[in-house]
Amino acid sequence: MFQLIVISILLFDAVFWWWADRRLRVLRWGIGWRLALAAFMAVQLGQFAWMFASRWTGIHLVLPPSFLALLYVWHLMVLPIFIVLLTAGGIAGGVAGLARRILRARRTALQPIPVPVPASRQGPTRRQVLLAGVAAVPPLFTGGTVAMAMGRLDHFRVRPIELALPDLPPALDGLRIAHIADVHAGRFTSPLLLESIVERTNELDVDLVLMTGDLIDYSLVELPRALDMVRQLRAGGGLFMCEGNHDLFDNRLEFERQVLDSGVPLLLDDQRTLSIRGQAVQVLGIRWGGLGDRHDAQIPLHVRKTLELRDPDAFQILLAHHPHAFDLAADAGVPLTLAGHTHGGQVMLTPDLGPGPLLYKYWSGPYRRGNSALVVSNGVGNWFPVRVNAPAEIIHITLRCSAPAERLGRMTG
After folding, report:
1. d(CA 219, CA 239)
2. Cα 358 from Cα 356, distance rounded (Å)
3. Which domains are present in the chain?
């Protein structure tokens, strides 16, 4: 499957380059546009080749984030959309052309054959100019999108959520939690953003800092500075985290070893119990079981294994990178589950319409099922440089014993 995806991407690059070059050559200054197109495609293909060559050879060259953003936006957003539109347009144009030819044949069957007149028009036709403009749009749109996105990479919001939980012990009314997910230290998470995360979180003066995976984006090279950020976060009751899929891309065992050796409480199908305001609070965290569908299939195994550690006298909070762990947790009566992974859908047409609800049952914000609640974070960092209607965030949760139901947000089940 991975090889098929890579081959498809290269094929789409070739198809677009061939199609666009043919449209641009008819322009008066076509050679300039064609050279610009060739330079754009050379950058894209060169980065694509280097990205895979560096993984095979083990030689890592740090490319500027703006170049990587061009690669990501072009291949994961603009090019697929354009290929789909081009294919649909070709089909629609073919059907319309066939219909016109049929109608023309019927008309001319009853009319004299016209005498052809030599064409005197010089230069490209209006249709050719229009198609040349269409060919120029995708690279220009990619460049403009990247320029805007790079200026927003270090921005995030602190999103306050007041959450009513029927089973919350009275002593914990007003408990404050900073929920941090998907830092993705690496390609698109700068040292400045890591500093801002520390500063904004510590300003909240919370009881708990709970992190739900994807501390790093890919390479373990980024882990030391990410852990340095984590150790600077302050919470009255403590800090705990679970792992995410990106954390394990480079080397799963080494990631887990380095985090545990650093003293950061990484919960791998494990739990920690602490006392806050004289009340026992148990934080449980599940491992990431695999990738894609394999992880979805293994969620029940990890949730059940972890819930065997529950303390019935403690208020329980489950940390799970994938939000689909919530259903099993709610069935078991866990009052609160925190998750990330979805990035709020990343590129949404509206806050409720887009990839988020297409890919996930729960994708952003608070949800309720019975007496249990889930909060899904959009994430504070980025693996992909563009966000639309899914802003990066740290969620500031305040727990309440009772509050109007509408404060909880989306309801489910």
Report:
1. 23
2. 5
3. 2-150 (no CATH), 157-411 (3.60.21.10)
For 304, the token pair is: 């059940």
Is residue 408 predicted with pLDDT exceeding 60? no
Nearest to 385 by CA among 222, 193, 247: 193
Complete DSSP assignment for 168-210: --GGGTT-EEEEE----BBTTB-HHHHHHHHHHHHHH--SEEE
Cβ atoms within 10 A of the Cβ of 179, count?
25
State the pTM of this model.
Answer: 0.85
> Residue 61 belongs to what H/E stretch?
none
pLDDT in tens, 284-327: 999 997 544 455 678 888 999 999 999 999 999 999 999 999 99
Burial environment of residue 334 by CB neighbours within 10 A (0 to 12, 13 to 18, 19 or more): buried
Q: Are 213 and 179 spatial neighbours (Cβ–Cβ below 8 Å)?
A: no
Q: Which residues contact 28 (CB under 8 A, 6 or more apart)?
A: 123, 124
Tell me how far the alpha carbon of residue 227 is from its chain's centroid.
Answer: 22
What's the burial of 296, exposed, middle or buried (CB within 10 Å: 0-12/13-18/19+)? Answer: middle
